[in-house]
Design brief:
5-stranded mixed sheet, Condensation domain-containing protein, Condensation_dom, Chloramphenicol Acetyltransferase, disordered N terminus, 2 domains, catalytic activity, alpha+beta
Length: 432
């Protein structure tokens, strides 16, 4: 939710939070604040579009989505004021550049779109750029401050644009009164029920503290981050899905747990996982209303692949019982340190296949790093690929190449659900 998320200031030179802000600040703003709210904390999505784009129709689609959703027109208002201000009659945050036959201008336009700095106290906190590289080749870049959107919001925004491109249909409007929702949420967080839920969650998570604690503080964005798009054996993934009765994302989650086990050598594993923290009726609601599940998984000697799948499912079911509790609050209560979990699983690819414009050919355009706030971030994409990012070049002696090899080796384990997990092979064999 843009207005609520925009309460969070950044480093020195930015405005401090007031007591009024703190009272209204949604406490599910966890993994990114406050160090993640600098003027350059941008989420960027890019695609290459082949075919003839109707620029005016695309501009109109962007404008109609922004007009229909006030959260996309919000910005941080400053201390001692309302938590957010909304621009009533905004200019459409759409920029078009025609760079045909000028390679230098094209590269400069793309770089500028990706690195676009936002002022947190001014509209807009979102910007769409379309750059023409050739008569039938364009690059589409959506750049938004993380206070305005999250990964779920990007997908929703792109789908809304796709739906309205060359269409006279109405733009979607949020079905939830955001201030009412935040007040209801705050009332729960201040209640005895939330205190009891917190106590139960802490008791359940305590054995996984070593896996949740970061090995060292991580800056945002990390200057040392390394990342890799890991190609998977599509047939092996589909076979694992069929044999285990899992979706691709669920198979990826099991691979991630196996990799975490290999890196740490721990039997009590813990990780965070993104989930949308929106009210059910608010499916059209844009903005930063997401939080993390904190999941604990126990691996016991003699466990098989099937046992591991069941353990992961139990851990997720248990974590969902406490999804109303801010992950950062639980982590701070578990140990005295940065509220950043060591391993993070992201069950969706940001914007993957979300932009569909008529019969135009659209493919991914690499724009920026994913900003690994944790030691290892695993993003589930599809049967062919997964994305991994590490906040540092090495984690527990494993570099990015070794982790990618771990993912591929773990996939081979899933072919036989009755196969016992070999602790020695997982821990030492992969490192070799």
């Amino acid at each position: 939710m843009t207005g609520a998320g925009a309460l969070v200031p950044s480093h020195a030179g930015q405005l401090p939070l007031t007591m009024r802000d703190r009272a209204l600040l949604p406490r599910f703003y966890t993994r990114f604040g406050p160090s993640g709210s600098t003027s350059h904390t941008n989420l960027v999505y890019g695609t290459v579009i082949r075919g003839e784009v109707d620029v005016d129709a695309l501009r109109s689609a962007v404008g109609r989505v922004v007009e229909a959703n006030p959260e996309l027109r919000a910005f941080y208002s400053g201390p001692d004021q309302d938590p957010a201000k909304y621009c009533a009659s905004p200019d459409v945050p759409f920029h078009f550049e025609d760079c045909r036959a000028d390679g230098a201008a094209f590269k400069a336009a793309v770089r500028a779109a990706i690195a676009y700095p936002f002022s947190l106290t001014d509209y807009p906190l979102i910007r769409v750029t379309l750059v023409r590289r050739a008569p039938a080749r364009f690059v589409f870049i959506l750049c938004a401050h993380h206070l305005a959107v999250d990964g779920w919001s990007i997908v929703m925004f792109l789908r809304a644009i796709s739906r309205l491109y060359k269409s006279d249909g109405p733009a979607s409007r949020p079905a939830v009164n955001v201030p009412d929702y935040l007040r209801d949420r705050q009332a729960y967080l201040d209640s005895d029920a939330a205190a009891a839920d917190t106590a139960r969650a802490l008791a359940w998570l305590t054995p996984a503290i070593p896996a949740l604690r970061p090995t060292q503080p991580t800056l945002f964005p990390s200057p040392e981050e390394v990342h890799r798009l890991v190609r998977l054996d599509r047939q092996a993934v589909r076979q694992a899905c069929q044999v285990l009765g899992l979706s691709v994302t669920e198979v990826h989650r099991v691979l991630f747990v196996l990799v975490q086990h290999a890196l740490t050598g721990l039997d009590e594993l813990g990780f965070s996982e993104s989930h949308p923290n929106r009210p059910p009726e608010g499916l059209g609601l844009y903005g930063f209303l997401s939080d993390d599940h904190l999941v604990r998984v126990t691996i016991r000697p003699g466990d098989t692949v099937r046992d591991l799948v069941n353990a992961v499912n139990r851990g997720l079911d248990h974590a969902r019982e406490y999804e109303g509790l801010p992950a950062a609050t639980l982590l701070r209560r578990l140990y005295d340190g940065p509220p950043l979990p060591r391993f993070h699983f992201n069950p969706f690819g940001v914007g993957a296949n979300a932009l569909r414009l008529g019969g135009l050919s659209i493919r991914h355009f690499k724009t920026m790093k994913a900003f690994a706030l944790t030691d290892l971030t695993f993003v589930s994409l599809n049967a062919d690929f997964a994305f991994i990012a590490m906040a540092r070049p090495e984690v527990d002696g494993f570099d990015i190449d070794a982790v990618a090899a771990c993912v591929r080796r773990a996939l081979a384990l899933l072919a036989d659900p009755t196969r016992p997990l070999s602790h020695g092979w997982l821990r030492s064999g992969w490192a070799a």
